[in-house]
Amino acid sequence: MSSTIATSALRKTALNPVHRALGAKMVDFGGWDMPVEYPAGFNGKPGGLIQEHMAVRTAVGLFDVSHMGDIAIRGPQALAAVQHISMNDASKLAIGQAHYSALLYPQGTFVDDVIVHRMGEDDYLLVINAGTREKDFHWVRDNTRSFDANVEDVGDKYTQLAIQGPRAAELLQKLTGADLAKIKNYWFAHGTVCGLPNTLIARTGYTAEDGFEIYVPSDEATSKRVWNEVLEAGKEFGILPAGLGARNTLRLEGKMALYGHEISDEITVWEATLDRFVKMDKPEFIGRAALEKQRAGGIRRTLVGLEMLDRGIARDGYKLFDEGGHEEIGYVTSGSPSPFLKKNIALAYVPPHFSSLDTNVLVEVRGQKLRAKVVPTPFYKRAKKA
Amino acid sequence: MAYPKELKYTKEHEWVRVEDATGDIGTIGITDHAQQALGDIVFVELPKPGADITAGKSFGTVESVKAVSELYAPVSGSVTAVNEELNTTPEKINREPHTAWMLKVKIKDKGELASLLSAGDYEKFVAEEGK
């Protein structure tokens, strides 16, 4: 009712009018006015979160992820700067390669998780979360002042589109001269896409599916043209435009962390079970000393996957109890029905002695304690191509 | 989707239909606007036959993939029947919101019906709310 002020304060991507024209349901996501799902009607197909989710798992989906931020770090000491502020080992990246990493506080908890791309000899691009764009930029700038490197917020320059699903490569190949078969997972190339030369094409995503993220100029006309050309080219593969609702259930099935849920300024790398992305053999990075100590001291809690045994859905923030229902042992970080697995799943923090597979726990759902068990994660893993 | 004239509506987006001659039994569900706002419905939690519900108070929950929403009773009464079909096919609420009923209740006070919205007034209310 009094939403006028709040609405005008929300940030919008260049594709906002396109989403509205498609009739998308819009939500405030990290201060951005973003589509959560699209209605039925595109290409004569049914719409909604479940359809969009299944399109990505079985065909292809198109997401506007321009709300994601981008930070460029360039200069003679760019690598040293990236190494100082991130936990993975950027010295291992070849030009054209990317990896998952995180910015940490000195106490070993998360400023944010990031994808680091090595664009050139002394040129790195960090892709960061929407809700933490300003915080991340200030953190990176303030903590790299002693390095001979320039830090630039380039988030507003790009419309970022995610083309995700088993048919994503076939679809995008219709629109680009770049040989996509040569771009391996977590690598990228530059090529002409929809007539736009030198477009960044990265084989990355947040859906646990094969797919690409492309970065095109953020003016409305270009953004709209590329969006429409991808949708048009995707019709033969069963494409659907997909919103943040499906993006969330897809990443949850793949056990990919979401800032403010599985990772935050209170959760450490060890607790979040992201061990394989932290390189302790790197001599120095912010958070390393704390992580060293925590590793020696052991962790109090760890992230596990749960599947509901009783009828009911575990949601973010719900409390967990031991099997007897006496002791509160933890909480759900993300919980939802899984559209692909057709089960109710959740990620949750529990003490390590509750983390073995098949451990029974109780989830408190509106006053009722419902049974759930610890299951292997990721909940969904795509089949590797032969 | 049009809002059927024979239903009465709440501002919390439930409907009630009074169809028997005596006017004693009310059938309750949620509106097309409610199902659209929720998205894909995957779960409903309803009271058991014999339970009492009170006008304006929560009588259960409906869940979409994304969200949990309370259900508010349009009238007071005791539950005489529950649509068990919704346990296995809750998506019927998305497809046919004004026929996929949730509860039948023996209405305690028919006077409560007078405070509910007509189809026309509900449609206006929804349009206003969307502004």
UniProtKB/TrEMBL annotation, chain A:
Residues annotated for substrate binding in this entry: E213
Any single GO BP term: glycine decarboxylation via glycine cleavage system
Keyword match Transferase: yes
EC number annotated for this UniProt entry: 2.1.2.10
Keywords annotated in UniProt: Aminotransferase, Transferase
GO cellular component: cytosol; glycine cleavage complex
Residue ranges of every copy of the Aminomethyltransferase C-terminal domain listed in the record: 301-381
InterPro entries: GcvT, GcvT/YgfZ/DmdA, GcvT/YgfZ_C, GcvT_bac, GcvT_C, GCVT_N, TrmE/GcvT-like
Alphabetized GO MF terms: aminomethyltransferase activity; transaminase activity
Residues in GCVT N-terminal domain copies: 17-282
Catalytic activities: N(6)-[(R)-S(8)-aminomethyldihydrolipoyl]-L-lysyl-[protein] + (6S)-5,6,7,8-tetrahydrofolate = N(6)-[(R)-dihydrolipoyl]-L-lysyl-[protein] + (6R)-5,10-methylene-5,6,7,8-tetrahydrofolate + NH4(+)
Summary of the function given for this chain in its UniProt record: The glycine cleavage system catalyzes the degradation of glycine.
Complex and partners: The glycine cleavage system is composed of four proteins: P, T, L and H.
PANTHER family per record: AMINOMETHYLTRANSFERASE (PTHR43757), AMINOMETHYLTRANSFERASE, MITOCHONDRIAL (PTHR43757:SF2)
HAMAP family: GcvT
The name this protein goes by in its record: Aminomethyltransferase
Lineage: Bacteria, Pseudomonadati, Acidobacteriota, Terriglobia, Terriglobales
UniProtKB/TrEMBL annotation, chain B:
InterPro entries: 2-oxoA_DH_lipoyl-BS (IPR003016), Biotin_lipoyl (IPR000089), GCV_H (IPR002930), GCV_H/Fam206 (IPR033753), GCV_H_sub (IPR017453), Single_hybrid_motif (IPR011053)
One GO location term (cellular component): cytosol
SUPFAM superfamilies cross-referenced by the UniProt entry: Single hybrid motif
Entry cofactors: (R)-lipoate
Family annotation (Pfam families): GCV_H
Entry keywords, A to Z: Lipoyl
Domain Lipoyl-binding: start-end pairs: 25-106
Textual note on the cofactor: Binds 1 lipoyl cofactor covalently.
Source domain of life: Bacteria
One BP term from GO: glycine decarboxylation via glycine cleavage system
Modification sites for N6-lipoyllysine: K66
Function of the molecule: The glycine cleavage system catalyzes the degradation of glycine. The H protein shuttles the methylamine group of glycine from the P protein to the T protein.
Protein family according to the UniProt entry: Belongs to the GcvH family.
Subunit structure: The glycine cleavage system is composed of four proteins: P, T, L and H.
PANTHER family, per the entry: GLYCINE CLEAVAGE SYSTEM H PROTEIN, GLYCINE CLEAVAGE SYSTEM H PROTEIN-RELATED
Name by which UniProt lists this protein: Glycine cleavage system H protein
Organism: Candidatus Korobacter versatilis
